[in-house]
């Protein structure tokens, strides 16, 4: 079986996981995640199950399930752990942290090996199952006291857990945390802490008919989910291979632009950077008299900014959803569907605005995303026009349009128009044109000359110039896909071919471990992407560059056949 | 005696009427040089100058904004007569333009040249077109005079016409008209004023002046250019939509213009750039949610322009539902349905209209048309059709229903639907409508006509499948009493 067939097969298994959850009434809930496909077709996916599965499809995914008690949140993620990793329900249960206000570090992280300490005087740590487990669940995370939150914070941000002098590196994991906002003994969760959670889903009580349905469900006290009635549909390794495969899904230009605009629209303020927290302290009075303070604006509704991490999460979860739906790329529709779930727990809203939604932060977020999207489509030509300017295509009507709309569009006013003006008034357009000519000509000497000239540009322009260069180079590429088994057989011939063009690494170990090996040289970039170490796992060799790309691709293909 | 001397003589002898005629003759001959010489000659005597200054505002009564002498006259007034006379001149000119039904006014004149203004007036004002005997060919020739514009238009044609053909056929818009308005847009772009707020305001004021005199050319041109502007308030856009929606054919033309310009703005790689405020207002007016916006964008990207037009039309009808005459809405939707695409959007609007109790004969006919093809209705369309019939039963005012179904043709059609409907859900919904219109006069009518009676008996037979034979018998007993 080809690697791609195997990956497609895994997609089928993921769908089976979602079906299993629904069919077996593991989580009875009819809310849907609506996704529009390019042909206008609408897909309705079971919201909670799909989002939980998406969280497992991104590396080190961390997700919040926010809702009242007794809804089945914890059971759902336990069952998903069994379905997606093959671990026993018992092992998953043992690794769960059940938070409470007096939980100690020892209960969460580890303890000293008392016998060894007494016998040998050595401080050896016995790590808790939560730390070691791949599938991590924290029940009622908002009941964790601040010091315990710090431990989780360190795990989520650095991927390490520390106890005494020892450090446990948590390389791969999937984490779910439930929040019951109305519980006793809860602690506020800080914004930076919440920002570490890629996704959050609001969970409300089942609907009328769903409750009727629930009365017919077998008694879980009598028949709890166990390893016999919950099959292991995937393994941890398969899941981790999928992380790599999904990371390769490209993001369409429209989607890229939307992600940028969404982030900027929520974060920008013409008067004070939201990053300073001034908005949180002073509130909407900052907006008084500001001409961007209109009904259509979103900057006046959100008091916090959107972090780079949030936008990266938006990309990651969008890729996962696109892959799940079998799409070739992340579309605008995909990003729009997933964005509210990536953002709502990270945003703080202006109180009057929130009142409109009776305090429902999720609905407020959904409305904000919707507004940005509508504005985005209306302004798309401006954003594309700006992209053209960066490619040296200067049209006076574009500059004019940017200038005229800087009155009504904050992103244009603060980012696009000023940048466009700087670009137009510099050597940048000429140099970019020279670069494009040189690339079209395939002349490496000329490219080098232009690149060295570009180093004299002011720093921000030079950075943009290099970014455009990379983009242009990446346009011309070829990919070879093989299985890991075959890769092991042909590493040497591949090394032989590539050594002619790039500085091929001498370290064999990195060429057989999962990860991305980037090799550069002579205007070429070769990425070797190893997704896993089982024979069937896909390995991708991506070659980016100028004239040599086709030649190298051909040589590698021949090496593969031989 | 030379022209200047003759003119001075007239002024000196206070023959002001003749002097005015003389100036007008120069204006009519489009002889700005001659005019300038005559005006300059009057400057020599202060007395004559005063008389001339008082005379010139009267000249404005007959002037057009594209008259090449206009800048000279205004300049002369400003420099030699003073602001007061200039203001008089402007007032007279403005009023006379309004009286003569000109659409463009001085505000636009001050933003674009008289030459471009003339073209604008010609496309927006059918009366001027008729008055001057000018057709689209002439306008296009004038627009494409410059090689640059001609080249850009050629590129535009290559880029868009194949994609737009179906849309243009659908709306009955001539390809030449598309060229004309795009040419005009390019010309406006060259003035650097297209994106200014002043131009937006003046252009919208001009469109308001058209009032009920929109024709195909002006409707297409107005809405095409509108989409490129920087400041189009929602309320202004709404009133323009309301004006154009009085005529379903024109509304399709206007929507085609919108679709075409949106395609150029949002999708076309080589298309122009627009600030996007007008598009924003449009989205807001149409009440589109983000998914609908994305869907519309997708349709434009896939060059499915006809479907995009149907979508916008259906959304616009829905948005204006409470402000347009009910018969008009019915006509509008019926017109859209005749193109047999975008049925879901049309049905969606239809459902809302019925829910608001705004039922017209056309709406019932439309539902009947859709039901005739019920076997081929796909999932979402089937569900919407069913919802529409239930809405008819639940929200339709009994008086309205009885009035409409009181017409023989409609009643016959409805009864035939009851006979032929195989789908139980639809039949059940239709039975509820029947209950609403059941009235002794209707039964009397049914049993006074043999054909009616036969259809009705067959309908009752079919109905027994969903309402049960007992209910049917009850109905029969009720009818028997009427008999």
Write a short abstract of this structure.
Chain A has 562 residues and is α/β, with parallel strands linked by helices. Helices cover 51% and strands 14% of the residues of chain A.
For the structure shown, list the relevant keywords.
heterodimer; A: 562 residues; alpha/beta; five-stranded parallel β-sheet; 24 helices; 51% helix; B: 483 residues; mainly alpha; 28 helices; elongated
Q: How much is the average pLDDT of chain A?
A: 89
Rounded to the nearest angstrom, the distance between the terminal CA atoms of chain B is 100 Å
Strand proportion of chain A: 5-15%
Largest two-chain interface? A-B, 35 and 33 residues
Order of helices and strands of chain B: HHHHHHHHHHHHHHHHHHHHHHHHHHHH
Instruction: Please state the average pLDDT score of chain B.
Output: 85
- Give the number of helices of chain B: 28
User: Span from first to last CA of chain A?
Assistant: 20 Å
Q: Mind describing the biggest β-sheet of chain B?
A: none
Can you characterise this structure?
The complex is a heterodimer of chains A (562) and B (483). Chain A has 24 helices and 15 strands. Chain A is of the alpha/beta class. The longest helix of chain A has 30 residues, at 361-390. Chain B has helices at 3-12, 16-28, 32-42, 46-59, 70-81, 83-99, 106-111, 114-124, 126-132, 136-143, 147-171, 175-190, 197-210, 216-226, 234-244, 248-267, 277-286, 290-301, 305-319, 326-337, 343-355, 361-372, 379-395, 398-405, 408-420, 424-437, 440-448, 450-482. Chain B has 28 helices and no strands. Chain B is 77% helix and 0% strand. With 483 residues, chain B is mainly α. Chain B is elongated and about 105 Å long.
């Amino acid at each position: 079986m080809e690697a791609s067939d195997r990956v497609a097969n895994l997609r089928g298994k993921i769908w089976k996981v979602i079906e299993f959850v629904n069919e077996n009434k593991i989580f009875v809930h009819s809310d849907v995640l609506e996704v529009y496909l390019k042909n206008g077709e609408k897909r309705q996916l079971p919201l909670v199950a799909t989002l939980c599965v998406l969280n497992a499809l991104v590396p080190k995914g961390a997700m919040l399930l926010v809702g009242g008690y007794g809804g089945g949140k914890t059971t759902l993620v336990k069952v998903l752990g069994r379905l997606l990793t093959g671990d026993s329900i018992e092992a998953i249960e043992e690794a769960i942290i059940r938070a409470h206000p007096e939980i100690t570090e020892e209960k969460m992280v580890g303890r000293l090996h008392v016998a060894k300490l007494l016998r040998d005087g050595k401080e050896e740590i016995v790590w808790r199952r939560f730390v070691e487990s791949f599938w991590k669940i924290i029940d009622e995370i908002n009941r964790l006291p601040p010091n315990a939150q710090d431990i989780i914070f360190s795990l989520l941000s650095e991927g390490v857990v520390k106890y005494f002098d020892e450090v446990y590196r948590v390389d791969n994991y999937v984490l779910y945390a439930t929040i019951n906002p109305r519980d006793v003994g809860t602690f506020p969760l800080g914004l930076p802490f919440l920002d570490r959670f890629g996704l959050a889903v609001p969970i409300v009580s089942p609907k009328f008919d769903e409750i009727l349905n629930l009365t017919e469900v077998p008694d879980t006290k009598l028949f709890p989910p166990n390893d016999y009635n919950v099959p292991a549909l995937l393994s941890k390794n398969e899941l981790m291979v999928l992380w790599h495969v999904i990371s390769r899904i490209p993001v369409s230009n429209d989607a890229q632009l939307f992600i940028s605009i969404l982030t900027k629209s929520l974060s920008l303020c013409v008067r004070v950077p939201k990053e300073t927290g001034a908005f949180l302290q002073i509130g909407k009075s900052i907006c008084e008299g500001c001409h961007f303070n209109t009904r259509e604006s979103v900057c006046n509704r959100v008091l916090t900014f959107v972090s780079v991490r949030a936008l990266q999460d938006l990309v990651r979860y969008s890729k996962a959803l696109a892959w799940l739906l079998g799409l070739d790329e992340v579309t605008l529709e995909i990003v729009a569907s997933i964005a509210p779930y990536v953002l709502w727990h990270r945003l703080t809203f202006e109180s009057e605005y929130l009142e409109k939604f009776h305090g429902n932060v999720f609905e407020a977020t959904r409305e904000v995303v919707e507004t940005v999207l509508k504005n985005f489509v209306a302004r798309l030509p401006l954003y594309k026009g700006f992209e053209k300017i960066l490619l040296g295509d200067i049209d006076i009507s574009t500059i004019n349009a940017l200038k005229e709309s800087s009155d009504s569009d904050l992103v244009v006013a603060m980012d696009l128009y000023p940048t466009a003006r700087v670009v137009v008034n510099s050597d940048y357009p000429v140099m970019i044109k020279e670069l494009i000519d040189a690339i079209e000509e395939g002349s490496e000497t000329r490219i080098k000359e232009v690149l060295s000239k570009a180093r004299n540009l002011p720093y921000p322009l030079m950075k943009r110039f290099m970014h455009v260069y990379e983009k242009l180079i990446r346009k011309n590429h070829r990919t070879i896909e093989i299985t890991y088994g075959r890769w092991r057989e042909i590493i040497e011939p591949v090394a032989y071919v590539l050594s002619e063009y790039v500085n091929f690494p001498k370290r064999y170990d990195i060429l057989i471990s999962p990860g991305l090996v980037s090799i550069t040289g002579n205007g070429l970039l070769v990425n070797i992407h190893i997704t896993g170490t089982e024979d069937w796992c896909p390995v991708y060799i991506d070659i980016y560059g100028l004239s040599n790309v086709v030649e190298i691709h051909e040589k590698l293909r021949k090496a593969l056949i031989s | 005696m030379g022209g200047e001397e003759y003119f001075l003589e007239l002024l000196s002898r206070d023959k002001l009427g003749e002097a005015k005629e003389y100036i007008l003759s120069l204006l009519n001959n489009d002889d700005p040089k001659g005019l300038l010489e005559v005006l300059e000659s009057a400057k020599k005597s202060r007395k004559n100058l005063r008389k001339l200054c008082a005379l010139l505002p009267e000249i404005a009564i007959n002037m057009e904004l594209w008259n090449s002498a206009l800048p000279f006259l205004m300049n002369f007034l400003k420099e030699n007569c003073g602001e007061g006379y200039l203001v008089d001149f402007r007032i007279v000119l403005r009023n006379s333009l309004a009286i003569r039904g000109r659409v463009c006014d001085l505000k636009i004149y001050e933003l674009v040249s008289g030459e471009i203004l003339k073209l604008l007036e010609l496309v927006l004002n059918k009366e001027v077109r008729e008055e001057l005997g000018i057709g689209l060919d002439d306008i296009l020739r004038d627009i494409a005079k410059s090689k640059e514009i001609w080249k850009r238009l050629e590129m535009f044609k290559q880029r868009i016409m194949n994609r737009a053909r179906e849309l243009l056929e659908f709306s009955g818009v001539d390809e030449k008209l598309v060229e004309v308005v795009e040419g005009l847009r390019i010309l406006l772009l060259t003035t650097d004023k297209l994106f200014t707020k002043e131009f937006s305001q003046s252009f919208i004021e001009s469109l308001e002046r058209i009032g009920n005199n929109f024709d195909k050319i002006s409707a297409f041109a107005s809405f095409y250019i509108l989409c490129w502007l920087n400041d189009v308030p929602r309320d202004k856009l709404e009133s323009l939509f309301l004006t154009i929606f009085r005529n379903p054919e024109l509304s399709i033309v206007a929507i085609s213009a919108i679709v075409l310009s949106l395609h150029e703005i949002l999708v076309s790689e080589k298309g122009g750039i627009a600030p996007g405020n007008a598009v924003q207002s449009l989205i807001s007016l149409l009440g589109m949610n983000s998914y609908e916006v994305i869907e519309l964008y997708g349709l434009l990207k896939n060059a499915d322009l006809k479907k995009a037009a149907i979508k916008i039309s259906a959304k616009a009808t829905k948005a204006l539902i409470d402000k347009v005459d009910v018969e008009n809405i019915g006509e509008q939707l019926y017109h859209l349905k005749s193109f047999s695409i975008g049925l879901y959007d049309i049905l969606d609007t239809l459902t809302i209209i019925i829910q608001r109790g705004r039922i017209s004969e056309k709406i019932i006919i439309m539902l009947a048309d859709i039901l005739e093809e019920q076997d081929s209705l796909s999932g979402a369309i089937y569900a919407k059709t069913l919802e529409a019939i239930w809405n008819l039963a639940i929200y339709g005012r009994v008086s309205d229903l009885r009035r409409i179904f009181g017409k023989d043709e409609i009643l016959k059609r409805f009864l035939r639907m009851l006979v032929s409907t195989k789908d139980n859900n639809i039949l059940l919904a239709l039975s509820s409508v029947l209950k609403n219109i059941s009235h002794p006069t209707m039964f009397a009518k049914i049993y006074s006509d043999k054909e009616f009676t036969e259809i009705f008996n067959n309908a009752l037979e079919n109905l027994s499948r969903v309402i049960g034979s007992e209910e049917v018998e009850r109905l029969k007993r009720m009818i028997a009493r009427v008999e």
